[in-house]
Amino acid sequence: MQKETKEYDVLVVGSGASGGMAAYILTQKGAKVLLLDAGPLVDFNHQRTMKPVYELPYRDLGKPGRLSLVYQATEFNAHQWVDFDQVPYTFSTKIPYSWARIRMIGGKVNFWGRMSYRLSDYEFKAKDHDGYGDNWPISYAELAPFYDRAETIFRVSGRKEGLPQLPDGIFVEDKSPDGSVIERINKTGASRGMRITKIRRALGDGQFASSANLLLPTAQATGNLTIVPNAVVRNVTLDKKTGKANGVNFADRQSGRELHAKAKVVVLGASALESTRILLNSGIANSSGVLGHYWHDQFYIPGGVYGVIPEAKNGKSSRGLSGSGVLVRFRNLKTKEKNFLRGYACDVNPGGTPDAKYFPMWGAELEDAINNHRNAGIGTTIMGETLARYEHHVKLDPKVTDAWGIPVLNFNIKYTDNEHNMAKDAVDTISQLFQDSGMEVLHRNPVMNNPGRSMHELGTCRMGDDPKTSVLNKWNQSHDVKNLFVVDGSSFVSGGAQNPTLTILALAMRASEYLAEQMRKGEL
Question: In a designed cystine with 119, which of 8, 51, 123, 193 is the match (CB 3.0 to 4.6 A)?
Answer without folding.
Answer: 123
